[in-house]
Amino acid sequence: MTLGAGKRPVAFVTGASAGTGREIALALGIGGYDVALVARRTAEMEDVAQAIHAGGGDALVLTADVRDAAVLDRAIDAFLAWSGGRIDVVVNAAGYTGPLSPPIGEFGVDEFDSTVATNLRAPFIVLSRLLPLMRQAGAGRVVNIGGNHGMRGRAGRSCYSASKWGLRGLTRSAALEAGPDGVTVNYVAPGPIAVPRMKANWRAMAEQKGLSEEEALRAYVADMGIPLNRPSEMQDIVAMVLYLIGEGGRNVTGQELVVDGGATL
Ligand SMILES: NC(=O)c1ccc[n+]([C@@H]2O[C@H](COP(=O)([O-])OP(=O)(O)OC[C@H]3O[C@@H](n4cnc5c(N)ncnc54)[C@H](OP(=O)(O)O)[C@@H]3O)[C@@H](O)[C@H]2O)c1
Questions:
Q1: Are residues 80 and 149 in the same domain?
Q2: How far apart are the first and last CA of the chain?
Q3: How far apart are CA 202 and CA 107, in angstroms?
Q4: How far apart are CA 224 and CA 194, in angstroms?
């Protein structure tokens, strides 16, 4: 249930049901924003909304598959009705990894379409609707969550990598268009993040190889070539987003902020 956005600044966050997007939405709620939450899993978002309400903020749950342009468009209509047309912060965090190891030629174009629709087309649709409003208002911050696979290639990750590289192009172009109106648009590129989904992978890896969880994580970090010897915690990404939408980010736009422990150096 929602009472409608009040006088607080308003944020629109996709991928708010789980992982990093969820933590970003919670941090914004605690940080004084009314937050619209977008993802497919309603119950998970209701939990986030409840936590934001408990902290005195407002939240709107928008159940939507962001791959479906019409559904996403309707969600944005509902958002604008709720916020009265106000939009201060957009975080595009919904993401899909796509095929995880087969090489090109061993999966269909539908997998490519699905990955690009989630990671690139959805942010484009969101920006198409919300960036003009920010520009009219003369203020606003957009953060697109990419990935360090948008800074490099990786065998077995062609769809994901292509979609995240594309998001960089969208970010830079939007930053150039919106900059003169006082709106910043940036790209955060995480390396592996210790989200529940990744932790489950690491546990499975440990079991498969007969290692302890700690040993399996150490092997994974070595395999990924991470100089700082650790995956990111979700809070590492949240902190970067808060920096970009806060005072520190006032004069930062069109940038790719890589948060991966140095893996892409
Ligand atoms: N975890 C990592 O190691 C890592 C590394 C680099 C970059 N990233 C990027 O960071 C962002 C967050 O990833 P994460 O791993 O923290 O999250 P996650 O646990 O994988 O959760 C993904 C989020 O995206 C939403 N989502 C996915 N497909 C969607 C769709 N078709 N429609 C609506 N929502 C959709 C999911 O919601 P529903 O399932 O409820 O729809 C969920 O809220 C992503 O953009 C990801 O590519 C993650």
A1: yes
A2: 46
A3: 25
A4: 14
Decide: 187 in ligand 1 pocket, CB within 6 A. no
pLDDT band (50, 70, 90) for residue 192:
very high
- Assess whether 66 and 187 both reside in one domain: yes
**33 catalytically annotated:** no
Which of 22, 38, 47, 96 for a ligand 1 pocket mutation test, highest count of atoms within 8 Å of Cβ? Answer: 96
Beta bridge pairs of residue 193: 232
7 is catalytic: no
- The total number of structural domains in the chain stands at 2
Ligand 1 neighbour 231 (Cβ under 6 A)? no
| Structure tokens that stand for 61 in this block | 């749950």
What are 25-69's pLDDT values in tens digits?
999 999 999 999 999 999 999 999 999 999 999 999 999 999 999
